[in-house]
Fold Chitosanase.
Amino acid sequence: MFLKVVLLCLILVTAHGALDECQKELAFRITNIYETGTTRFKFDYCQWLDDGGGYDAGFISGNTASGAILAVVERWEKIKPEDDLVTLLPRLRQVVGTSDVQGLERLCDFWRAATKDSRFNRVQYDYATDGYYNPSQRHGAEIGLTMPLARAQLYDANIEQGDGDDEFSLGGMIKTTISQVGMPEKGRQSDWLAAFLNVRIAALHKKGYGNTDYRVKSYQWALQHGQQKMQGKTVQVLENGLQQVVNVTCTGDFSN
């Protein structure tokens, strides 16, 4: 009986267009290109960019201002409370919503040291899943969006722009797209994705982030070059300069 229930759940998930594990990994690795310049999971990435977000760290390039780094370290505290990184929790809580980095001078040293423990890297991966991937996929399920490339794009949009109802955020951009071209009906999902990508580019430029529209144009290229189904273990997109084609491959191993 239990096996039947599991099989039924798998059928329902597939019917609602959820990405399989390989496609999810591909989505993550594609976004890695835009966040850290590589398809691998750069868990040890950490630097101060002086862009108003404080420190950036981790393979999704979360920052201290948004609270993303705080969330990861709070999860890590439950696994290894004696880690040096955990000692920064009080200060990390104080700087959320600000660009202040005072008192965090050892953050990158502690962060990189923590990545030597595979459990910390798993914490990062699970946070990206719970905080960004799953919410983006719920949006896709709610509107009946089943195209794998479109589902991957929702994740990338959520990573960069966050979720919400304003015109710059994922939920707001979905609403804007629906108001322009309707729901992503079967047989028209390529058109819907094309419209969403245009909406996202417009939102980025309006908000002052037009210099990052290469990540959206990379998806436009993928859409135009037959990558909609993300079949097999490799998908092609463009690198950040939009000049070179990048082969992104799922390996089944998040540790590299």
